[in-house]
User: What shape does this take?
Amino acid sequence: MPKENVVTGVHNAPHRSLFHALGLTEEEQKRPLIGIVSSYNEIVPGHMNLDKVVDAVKLGVAMAGGTPIVFPAIAVCDGIAMGHTGMKYSLVTRDLIADSTEAMALAHGFDGLVMVPNCDKNVPGLLMAAARVNIPTVFVSGGPMLAGRVEGKKTSLSSMFEAVGAYNAGKITDEKLYEYECKTCPTCGSCSGMYTANSMNCLTEALGMGLRGNGTIPAVYSARIELAKHAGMAVMELLKKNIRPRDIMTKDALMNALTVDMALGCSTNSMLHLPAIAHECGVDLNLDIANEISAVTPNLCHLAPAGRTYMEDLNEAMMKITAGPAKKSRVQTRKDLTFSVSATTRQPRPGEEDGVHYHFLAMDTFREWIAQDEFLEHAEFVGNCYGTPKKYVYEAMDRGQDVILDIEVQGAMQVAEKMPEV
Assistant: This one.
């Protein structure tokens, strides 16, 4: 293991003296040295909670028999950097983060790493570093912010920019603008819509570099702390099996991430970052490949700023998929849809409270509903998402009906295969 270069043998006695200077016991020096890359700071809202996440990771590593050692990574808040010279410094930090993390990991003989990122360029920078260093590595992000609420409606950072526009147009008052200012971003975490940070954290999970829930569990949920402990334990398991980032981030994994990207409607910035990550893994990924995958992948989610759903809603949907079947109940309205995962497919029209939805049902549940004739009163069964032409889906939506498609759910997320055109 890499630590043998710094702790084993007479020639490394000077190195060991410096580990003693750190307060590390002989027992700790004999265990695998796990670097915890902490992106904690007090200027990025998505990073102000990372000290708690890092502490939980350290516990997980120690419980699994490793010696956790923390070192830092920088991060810029794109929201605060926006609109002035600060934005010139955002993208370049990705490579600064990759370079500095590579330097720290290789200079100090770490056997494994746990990356703790959250926002924007910080996530891809650490993924690039993981591929370069190529020692067992697990990611656990800080998690998304909860949506704000103004006048009973959920909000995200883009709502704030819209409020400024409304104020400048004379449509809202000073008082209302201040209300948006105080309520739009109510908690720590990466901004609550499917912006760059949450996109990259979800894609980290799709790549296989983060545990289930990495991209969706809200920052303020205690489940995020549990996830961090499990990440610390998981890196020790990877170390035991000698599974490295380039074993995980294969061409197939990158294509899978790109497919999830299209299905979730992630930020277009992912096309700045996925090719860069792929390059570090020795894989060619370009816009032509992205367009090919986009052409055959249905967009399942319209998360903010594209729609009125937020990361906390995606997390709840994921919980429904992984929790197994609920108790039987007669389904009459959308609110009683206990077995399905809903994803808005178009925005509400005048007079509608909500947009038209696809409803993806587990196959067994779907058959059960057929047998009992327990469909939504306002919904229309169209067919199987593996073979139903898009034309029929769109026609049903135009009639104002919700659309029921059956899908076999396996694991944390199953993306529907191509729906053929007519």
Summary: The mean pLDDT is 83. The two ends are 57 Å apart (CA to CA). The first strand starts at residue 33 and ends at 38.
